[in-house]
Design goal:
alpha+beta; about 15% helix; about 280 residues; 6-stranded antiparallel sheet; single chain; 2 domains; Immunoglobulin-like; 5-stranded antiparallel sheet
Length: about 280
């Protein structure tokens, strides 16, 4: 578990439904069997709808990070459904890492015979539908507010970059249907020395080289030695195929939060992650 010191920065509230953030990723390539919606006998819903309901209930459960990641078993590996739930779990873990309380359980409301509505408040709701399963009954695809999710997702390649003895790994990026803002999740792992990070100063340049506007981040700033955490950083109207520059300061000679180097210019570091 990570050890962090948090400062108050505006973050996203309830999972992926608020318009405070989101991201513009490149379409995820999903290799899958032909989707099969198997009609069952009697009044039972098609397999795709039944699995879809279970999937949305995982998103709404408020049962903790472990339960969210266990929900991945409902999905086909590397599918759109898998990547979206994985991103949701990354978002939840980042929230925990900065010291936020667990997400509250939300009601799942049926819409018609094949969709389900999830609300973070009375005015902010999303409708999940378009559920497709493969021949093994695993969820492979879905829509949110009738929009395809796949083109909004980007997954990292599990290849970290190293700076100041720490590893930075792009996990996921997602453009919310609620706004044009891009959520990017990055895993930070320290080695023998602690570091400080300031996601407010991280930057993103699109494929055309132009900088995008930073609109928010999680608040964790101090990562002690041999620890890890997940950071969320958000940009407005971003496009995949660009580069995310992360950075911070070495904390020389101490692993105690609050004892950062006073000479950050000489102890500053940065690293670049390719997104998409």
């Amino acid at each position: 578990m990570s050890a962090v010191r948090s400062v108050l920065v505006g973050t996203c509230g309830l999972l992926l439904l608020t318009s405070c953030a989101s991201g513009v990723p490149k379409a995820t390539t999903v290799r899958r069997s032909a989707p099969v919606a198997t009609a069952s006998q009697g009044t039972s819903p098609p397999v795709s709808v039944a699995v879809g309901k279970s999937y949305v209930e995982v998103l709404a459960s408020g049962n903790g990070l472990g339960a969210t990641r266990e929900g991945l078993t409902l999905t086909a590996p590397n599918s759109v459904a898998y990547r979206y739930l994985d991103h949701a779990a990354n978002m939840q873990e980042a929230s925990i890492d900065e010291g936020d309380p667990p997400y509250l359980k939300q009601a799942v409301v049926p819409v018609g015979g094949d969709s389900f509505k999830l609300c973070s408040d009375k005015l902010t709701c999303a409708t999940f539908g378009g559920f497709l399963v493969n021949q093994d009954g695993k969820l492979v695809d879905l829509t949110i507010n009738n929009q395809p999710v796949g083109p909004r997702l980007t997954a990292g390649n599990d290849q970290p970059v190293t700076a100041a003895g720490a590893k930075f790994t792009l996990l996921t990026a997602y453009q919310s249907v609620m706004s044009n803002t891009w959520f990017i999740t990055v895993k930070v792992q320290t080695g023998a020395e602690p570091i400080t990070i300031n996601p407010k100063l991280w930057s993103y340049r699109g494929p055309d080289g132009k900088p995008l506007t930073w609109v928010g981040s999680t608040a964790a700033t101090h990562v002690v030695s041999k620890a890890s955490l997940i950071v969320i950083v958000m940009f407005d109207s971003a496009k995949a195929g660009g580069r995310l520059t992360v950075g911070g300061c070495r904390v020389l000679g101490s692993s105690a939060p609050g004892d950062e180097s006073r000479d950050c210019p000489s102890a500053a570091f940065s690293a670049v992650l390719k997104v998409g």
